[in-house]
């Protein structure tokens, strides 16, 4: 057993097997294997039927060049040229080709194989060019054409589906990259506004704000382009943003972040939660004084994340949904589109928009780290 294993390793290395597989993928190899298999099957089938394998072999040697001419004429000329727009022309040319090649096959069989006309017919003394004989031969050729056409169309359909899926995947990746690139300037614009307010007031908190902003920028720039980041990193990013808002308003009660469940070894798309939190700070009321803090909840159950953000609203402001239809809603709009691309329909987002509060509830699946 060990000797066999060593022989296999010596003669069939990984590179050799890889090269063999690559070679077998070539169309000419596929075609050759198909025709060899079909030839053997036909020879054995008719040899068993007539109990004369020598006759079956000679007959198939004559027939197979006819098969090849008709099949490849159909696959690589008639189908591309006439289907699907000129079905009538396709059927006309195919019919003519069948008649011509059937007559050639009949003549070659008579002179090269046997002078016994239509040996498989139960009726004897057939005419060499009798209508029934010609139709029988043509139907036999049509069977081969139909079989190969079905195989070709199936392969083409599978290939087109694969290309369509690959194109869709690339389009999704391109759109996701575009959406992520929009998140970054949008996020920085909001944060720099906060810093601008502090510098106008010549606040002593400006240096700390710059430090927090640096942490935020580091996460957005270096982690924002990744497909997945750890949930703990994303939560730290959220906490930094809350800290920045706390510095801005000088009130530690502007927001309450509640975390429950096991957040370790979990991964999440970067910056998928932040727009909802930004939105709450941008449009919420009452949190500045700390009377109605923004409530942010993250709960992990198994591989499922339940995320919610609640902020109070002023009755004098326009409804938040109306506000989001303008440019200020770009973060939310992009996030919704990212969720659709990343999770398809495998996520849940509920919005409760009343005159007093605005609440979003998001449910998504997390990846194991």
UniProtKB/TrEMBL annotation:
Recorded GO MF terms: kinase activity
Residue ranges of every copy of the Signal transduction histidine kinase internal region domain listed in the record: 175-251
Alphabetical list of InterPro entries matching this protein: Bact_2-comp_sensor_kinase (IPR050640), HATPase_C_sf (IPR036890), Sig_transdc_His_kin_internal (IPR010559)
Keyword terms of this UniProt record: Kinase, Membrane, Transferase, Transmembrane, Transmembrane helix
The domain of life for this entry's organism is Bacteria
List residues traversing the bilayer: 20-41, 61-79, 91-113, 133-155
Matching Pfam families, A to Z? His_kinase (PF06580)
According to UniProt, the name of this protein is Histidine kinase
């Amino acid at each position: 057993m060990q000797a066999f294993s060593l022989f296999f390793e010596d003669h069939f290395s990984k590179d050799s097997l890889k090269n063999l597989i690559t070679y077998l993928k070539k169309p000419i190899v596929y075609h050759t294997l198909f025709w060899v298999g079909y030839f053997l099957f036909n020879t054995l089938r008719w040899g068993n039927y007539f109990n004369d394998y020598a006759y079956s072999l000679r007959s198939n040697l004559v027939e197979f060049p006819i098969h090849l001419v008709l099949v490849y004429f159909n696959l690589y000329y008639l189908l591309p040229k006439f289907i699907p727009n000129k079905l009538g022309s396709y059927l006309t040319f195919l019919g003519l080709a069948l008649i011509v090649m059937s007559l050639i096959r009949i003549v070659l069989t008579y002179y090269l194989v046997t002078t016994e006309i239509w040996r498989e017919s139960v009726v004897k003394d057939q005419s060499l060019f009798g209508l029934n004989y010609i139709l029988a031969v043509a139907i036999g050729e049509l069977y081969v054409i139909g079989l190969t056409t079905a195989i070709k169309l199936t392969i083409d359909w599978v290939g087109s589906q694969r290309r369509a899926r690959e194109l869709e995947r690339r389009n999704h990746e391109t759109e996701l990259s575009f959406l992520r690139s929009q998140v970054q300037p949008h996020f920085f614009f909001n944060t720099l506004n906060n810093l601008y307010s502090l510098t106008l007031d010549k606040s002593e908190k400006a240096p700390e704000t710059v430090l927090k902003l640096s942490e935020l920028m580091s996460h957005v720039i270096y982690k924002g382009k990744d497909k997945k980041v750890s949930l703990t990193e994303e939560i730290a990013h959220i906490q930094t943003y809350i800290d920045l808002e706390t510095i801005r308003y000088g009130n530690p009660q502007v927001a309450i972040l509640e975390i429950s469940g096991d957040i370790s070894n979990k991964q999440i798309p970067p910056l998928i939660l932040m727009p909802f939190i930004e939105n709450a700070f941008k449009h919420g009321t009452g949190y500045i004084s700390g009377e109605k803090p923004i409530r942010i909840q993250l709960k992990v159950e198994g591989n499922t994340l339940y995320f919610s953000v609640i902020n109070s609203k002023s009755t004098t402001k326009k409804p938040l949904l109306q506000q989001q239809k303008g440019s200020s809603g770009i973060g939310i709009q992009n996030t919704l589109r990212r969720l659709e691309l990343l999770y398809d329909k495998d996520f849940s987002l509920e919005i409760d928009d009343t005159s007093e509060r605005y609440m979003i509830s998001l449910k998504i699946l997390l990846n194991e780290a």
